[in-house]
Amino acid sequence: MTARVLPASEGIDEAARVIREGGLVAFPTETVYGLGANAFDARAVAHIFEAKERPAFDPLVVHICDVEMLQSVTSQIPKAGQALAQSFWPGPLTLILNKTEKVPGIVTSGLSTVATRMPSGAHALKLIDAAQTPIAAPSANTFGHLSPTRADHVFRDLGERIPLILDGGQTTHGIESTIVDVTGDVPTVLRHGAIPIEQIADVVGDVDARTSSTSNPTSPGQLDHHYAPNAPLRIAAPDQAPSSDAAIVTFDKERAGSWSQSVVLSPAGDLNEAAANLFEVLHQLDEANPAAIYIELVPDVLVGRAINDRIRRACASAR
Ligand code: TXA
Ligand code: MG
């Protein structure tokens, strides 16, 4: 099988038909591309795990487009969850909520909670609405690989395993949604993402963060070996000497000039731009196939936390 690639603006009806018939569709969201299936169809969802080679203990995000659909996956939204949904939906926020019986266990890896988000990407919203069912969708990459921010990233990685890719161009945020568990006493960030924890705290006050990786993660996205490019990736020391066969990813134009291969993550020195470019740049460098990639950490504030998180995990897996 080789995936058909349709412009997202023209392919919504066809994609919705594939979803309703139990097939898989890769589609753009405002964060990264997702690999979607009907969330209420356990057999279709099993195909997601198969195509991604994803371990069954790693649960999926269920995408919804309106409140009625939300009520089909969860019957109970705690106050903090309501406030966060009010502030950030549609948008790059995933809430951990108690699930209804309608959500099959394969979606949640047997957990009683479900990760849910209402994306703001227009094509994603239209697809969910046209399919008339919640869509379970992890990032559209083989497990452990870089997340895709363009249709051709998906095609290169999964093009032989899935029937259809909707091409909506490069995604806006370029980094995954922020995951917040609102089922406990204090809202807890499980994955730093496109919405900074500072903004979550502005809405709910007290926030915990439990994003560090362990061998028995609360959110399996916390596993170390995640988001990795093919080339060995290392964190660049402040005094890292230029290397002739390695590339550097940096914020600093002058520093870039002294390396033979270099990428400036954000020419404007802007964290949101850096986040939007991160996976794109690593995908590009993978094509160029340098002997190694050195990458600078960014200031550990706002979306910089999510950027540093992805960099550290990618470096850990490259060890
Ligand atoms: O931006 C995003 O969230 C993208 C787009 C496609 O929406 N999706 C995405 O999905 O990043 P994925 O599967 O790559 O990451 C979802 C993370 C996983 O690390 C998973 O372990 C966690 O969400 N997760 C899912 N259900 C959970 C649950 N019930 N409790 C805790 N963590 C959960
Ligand atoms: Mg992922």
Describe the structure.
With 319 residues, the chain is an alpha/beta fold. The chain has eleven helices and 15 strands. It has helices at 8-20, 42-52, 67-73, 79-88, 105-108, 122-131, 151-158, 197-204, 253-257, 271-288, 304-317; strands at residues 4-7, 25-27, 34-38, 61-63, 93-98, 113-117, 135-136, 164-167, 178-181, 188-191, 208-209, 233-235, 246-250, 261-264, 292-295. The strands form two sheets. It has an eleven-stranded mixed sheet with strand order 1-8-2-3-7-4-6-5-9-10-11, sandwiched between helices. Helix 1 packs parallel to helix 6 (122-131). The chain is globular, with a radius of gyration of 19 Å. Threonylcarbamoyladenylate is lined by residues 29, 31-32, 34, 58-61, 92, 94, 96, 108, 111, 113-115, 137-139, 176-177, 179, 190, 219-221.
Secondary structure tally, helices: 11
Outline:
globular
Structural class: alpha/beta
> Residue ranges: pLDDT <50 for 5 or more in a row?
none
**Rg over CA atoms:** 19 Å
Bound molecules: threonylcarbamoyladenylate, magnesium ion
Lateral strand order in the biggest sheet: 1-8-2-3-7-4-6-5-9-10-11
The whole-number mean of residue pLDDT values reads 93
Strand content: 15-25%
Relative helix content: 25-40%
Oligomer: single chain
Number of beta strands: 15
Distance between the termini: 34 Å
**SSE pattern, N- to C-terminal:** EHEEHEHHEHEHEHEEEHEEEHEHEH
Biggest pleated sheet: 11 strands, mixed
